[in-house]
Amino acid sequence: MTSKVWFITGSSKGFGRVWAEAALARGDQVAATARDVGTLSDLVKKYGDKIAAIKLDVTDKAAVDGAIAEADRRFGRLDVVINNAGYGQFGAIEEVSEEDARAQIETNLFGALWVTQAALPIMRAQRSGHIIQISSIGGVNAFPNIGLYHASKWALEGFSQSLAQEVAEFGIHVTIVEPAGFSTDWAGPSAKVAKSMPEYQRIRDQMKERRSNVVPGDPQASGPAMLALVDEAEPPLRVFFGDVGLPMIQQEYAKRLANWEKWDWIADLAQGPAKNRKAAG
């Protein structure tokens, strides 16, 4: 198997760290980015020139361009780019401040966009590459108290589905990974919480109870899954990580279809006389 060159954002902990370690352990090369590259010092010591530890805040577009260029200079190509940097913004829609909302979108959406745009010229020149966007089950479903997080992930999924069609002719694949609940720092130290309003306390309590009944997955188990994904000759556009995603989305889409079918008479009404003329013809 030919060694791959990876570029991973948010490599200091959680999924990003697991995937960087998995790639390095099998002999691949990794450009690992983090706001604090000191968190990667042990990997640099262990793997030497197989890893490039690059300081990066993905909301800084110029810095993103520089980081991608540095990775290309260091390793000469980019085979796998993983947009993993991001966090969860908790708070009801009414609670979220303008600053909260803009920061969430800047990191989770625009950060991934800047990295994607910076990597594409290199991958087009290679006529190969695999861009992996880390979304969430929250990219295909939505729950109370994390509306802005959902907004960022639904937007990420939208532009990535378009992207996949735009770059297929260049030999570039796009995969949207949708993890379920894993025991990372996502809902803990990495999360941001809006200033709460008492009117939404009941919703917060309900969501807390719901999360307490879910057994989180082990992030380490996602390492082999990511390696298997990047080694596929024809990888999927979307894939769940964890065993709760598929049954959850099957239920969700069944509800959506039932809703659309029930209210299809409104759709017909909105079509106006044009539909009636077509049917008559």
Look up the CATH topology of the largest domain: Rossmann fold
For CATH, the homologous superfamily of the largest domain is named as: NAD(P)-binding Rossmann-like Domain
The shape is: globular
Strand/helix succession: EHEHEHEEHEHEEHHEHHH
Broad CATH class of the largest domain: Alpha Beta
Helical percentage: 40-55%
Radius of gyration: 21 Å
Query: Strands of the biggest beta sheet: in what spatial order?
Result: 3-2-1-4-6-7-9
The helix count comes to 10
What's the rounded overall pLDDT mean? 93
**Per CATH, which architecture of the largest domain?**
3-Layer(aba) Sandwich
Largest sheet at a glance? 7 strands, parallel
Low-confidence stretches: none
Classification by helices and strands: alpha/beta
DSSP strand tally: 9
